[in-house]
C-alpha cells in the first residue's frame, strides 16, 4: 500500500519506531480534541500507517473497523476502546497483555 508518509519516519513515529496505540494517541490533543468523534478521526487519519509489530503496518481505518463507540468523551475512554478493538482484532502484539486486562475492559 502507498502510505501518505513513512510509518517509521518523523511524521509516522516522531523519529523513533513507535507502535500501535502510541501512534494513534499522538494524533490527538488530550486537552482540546474531546469529545472526539470516531468518524472524524478516521476521516482525518484513516489512510495513515500504524506499525503493529516489526513487520506489520495497517491503516488507522483498518484498526477502527473494530471500534464500536461512535464518540469518546475523554482520553481514557479513547485508549480503552482502541485497546479493546486492537486486542480483539489481532492488532495487539504485546506478550502478556491479557494479564493486565480484566473482564470489565
What features would you highlight for this structure?
single chain, DUF5785, 105 residues, DUF5785 family protein, two-stranded antiparallel sheet, 4 strands, alpha+beta
Radius of gyration of CA atoms, rounded to a whole number:
13 Å
How many separate structural domains? 1
The structural class is alpha+beta
Could you name the ranges where pLDDT drops below 50 across 5 or more consecutive residues?
none
How many DSSP helices? 5
SSE succession: HHEHEEHEH
Apparent shape: globular
Largest sheet strand order: 1-4
Number of strands: 4
Q: Mean pLDDT score, rounded?
A: 82
β-sheet strand percentage: 5-15%
Largest sheet: 2 strands, antiparallel
Helix content: 25-40%
Q: How far is the first residue's CA from the last residue's CA?
A: 33 Å
Protein name: DUF5785 family protein
Pfam family, one: DUF5785
Organism: Halorubrum trueperi
Explain what the structure shows.
Helix content is 35%, strand content 12%. The chain contains 5 helices and 4 strands, in the order H-H-E-H-E-E-H-E-H. The protein has helices at residues 10-13, 20-25, 38-45, 60-64, 75-88; strands spanning 36-37, 49-53, 56-59, 71-72. The model has no long low-confidence stretch (mean pLDDT 82).
Amino acid at each position: 500500500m502507498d502510505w501518505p508518509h513513512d510509518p517509521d519516519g518523523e511524521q509516522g513515529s516522531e523519529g523513533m519506531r513507535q507502535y500501535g496505540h502510541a501512534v494513534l494517541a499522538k494524533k490527538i490533543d488530550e486537552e482540546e480534541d474531546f469529545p472526539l468523534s470516531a468518524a472524524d478521526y478516521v476521516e482525518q487519519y484513516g489512510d495513515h500507517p500504524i506499525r503493529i509489530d516489526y513487520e506489520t503496518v495497517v491503516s488507522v481505518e483498518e484498526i477502527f473497523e473494530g471500534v464500536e463507540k461512535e464518540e469518546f468523551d475523554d482520553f481514557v475512554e479513547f485508549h480503552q476502546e482502541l485497546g479493546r478493538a486492537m486486542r480483539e482484532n489481532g492488532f495487539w502484539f504485546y506478550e502478556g497483555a491479557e494479564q493486565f486486562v480484566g473482564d470489565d475492559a
